């Protein structure tokens, strides 16, 4: 099985699993559907749209398995090229699509623990300032005078230490081939309903792709171009 066969097979399986989840979500009301996961902006798919998508996916899966069984590796490559060209040239941004359903609920907001951490601690009795007794000695007066000088010396030492740090080495630039692959993958995934936070890990798992940190750097550098090609509004 070629790399393109593996990618197309994985994509079709995820699409079928997503459509099956949407078929179960048809019984939910709008409020419950909105809480199933963090959906992208879209019009909720109706029953006939879900059933039509499932029927077409089953047929495409059958054709893919038939071609792969005959050793035709060009079929998967043609599917990937068509998906990319459709996104790049022919598709307009629409809200009526079937978003990818993962079955995972949205992350819960930070609870009361964060609020408790944000509250300043109440001062203890031991932190109350001591009352002056009027018996300040000469040694205490000298210590008070020396504190500003000692603090200034500490600041100067810290500044010299920070200035002496060697500059961090520049990040190696990605090759043009790797950059083009990552951009094409990002445009394709965005057109399929994938969200920006999921792009780097999804692309890094593909064959012949850079590591996830390098993929993330490419996405940040070319975000505007990717969004323009995918015809999606910025996050």
Please tell me about this protein's structure.
There is one protein chain. The chain is an all-alpha fold and 235 residues long. Among the domains are: 3-90; 176-230. It is 61% helix and 0% strand. α4 (74-90) crosses α7, α7 (176-191) packs across α10 (223-230) and α8 (196-204) packs across α9. The longest helix is centred in the middle third of the chain and has 26 residues, at 138-163. The two termini are 37 Å apart. The model is unreliable at 123-129 and 131-137 (pLDDT under 50).
| Helicity range | 55-70%
Distance between the termini: 37 Å
Query: What is the helix tally?
Result: 10
Supply the helix-strand structural class: mainly alpha
Strand content: under 5%
Number of strands: 0
What characteristics describe this protein?
235 residues; mainly alpha; 10 helices
Offer a quick outline of the entry:
The chain has 235 residues and is mainly α. Among the domains are: 3-90; 176-230.
Layout: helices, strands, pairs:
Layout: H1 3-25, H2 30-34, H3 47-69, H4 74-90, H5 112-118, H6 138-163, H7 176-191, H8 196-204, H9 212-221, H10 223-230
């Amino acid at each position: 099985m070629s790399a393109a066969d593996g990618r197309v097979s994985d994509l079709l399986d995820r699409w079928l699993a997503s459509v099956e989840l949407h078929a179960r979500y048809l019984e939910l009301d709008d409020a419950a559907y909105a809480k199933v996961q963090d959906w992208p902006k879209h019009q909720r798919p109706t029953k006939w749209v879900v059933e039509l998508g499932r029927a077409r996916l089953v047929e495409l899966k059958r054709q893919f398995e038939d071609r792969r069984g005959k050793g035709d590796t060009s079929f998967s490559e043609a599917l990937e090229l068509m998906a990319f060209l459709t996104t790049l040239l022919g598709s307009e941004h629409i809200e009526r699509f079937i978003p990818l359903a993962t079955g995972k609920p949205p992350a819960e907001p930070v609870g009361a623990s964060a609020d408790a951490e944000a509250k300043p601690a109440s001062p203890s009795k031991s932190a109350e300032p001591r009352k002056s007794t009027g018996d300040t000695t000469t040694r205490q007066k000298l210590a008070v005078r020396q504190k500003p000088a000692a603090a200034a010396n500490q600041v100067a030492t810290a500044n010299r230490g920070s200035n002496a740090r060697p500059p961090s080495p520049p990040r190696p630039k990605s090759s043009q081939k790797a950059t083009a692959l990552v951009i094409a993958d990002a445009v394709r995934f965005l057109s399929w309903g994938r969200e920006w936070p999921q792009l780097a890990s999804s692309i890094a798992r593909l064959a012949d792709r850079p590591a996830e940190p390098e993929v993330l750097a490419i996405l940040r550098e070319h975000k505007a171009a990717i969004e323009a090609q995918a015809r999606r509004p910025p996050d």
